[in-house]
């Protein structure tokens, strides 16, 4: 089963999303991405109204380049399409919870 959207949303589409959105950048075969899934599941279950988009990243992927993604997984929290927080390779639930601290 594929976790990440192969057909990336457009930057304009992402910028137009209302409210809070968590962008997750990675690829299915990445061991760091796989390892982050239990933390992510716990985080999302605690925040059921948070929109989550898992976006496949890599060479030639425009959305990841636009957000300056260098390591996977990268989690970027947006409010009304504007970045308000980022967690790269989170190691604990606290790393993800810190994203909402400023929201």
Note down, in words, how this protein is organized.
A four-stranded mixed β-sheet has the order 2-1-3-4, covered by helices on one side. The protein is globular, with a radius of gyration of 12 Å. With 103 residues, the chain is α+β, with helices and mostly antiparallel strands. It contains four helices and four strands.
Short description:
It is built from 4 helices and 4 strands; from the N terminus they run αβαβαββα. The chain has helices at residues 11-15, 31-46, 62-66, 93-101; strands spanning 20-26, 51-56, 74-79, 82-88.
In terms of topology, how is this protein built?
Elements: H1 11-15, E1 20-26, H2 31-46, E2 51-56, H3 62-66, E3 74-79, E4 82-88, H4 93-101
Parallel strand pairs: 1-2
Antiparallel strand pairs: 1-3, 3-4
Number of strands: 4
Instruction: Compute the CA-based radius of gyration.
Output: 12 Å
By DSSP (H or I, 4+ residues per run), the number of helices equals 4
Indicate the structural class.
alpha+beta
Index terms:
globular, 4-stranded mixed β-sheet, 103 residues, 4 helices, 34% helix, alpha+beta
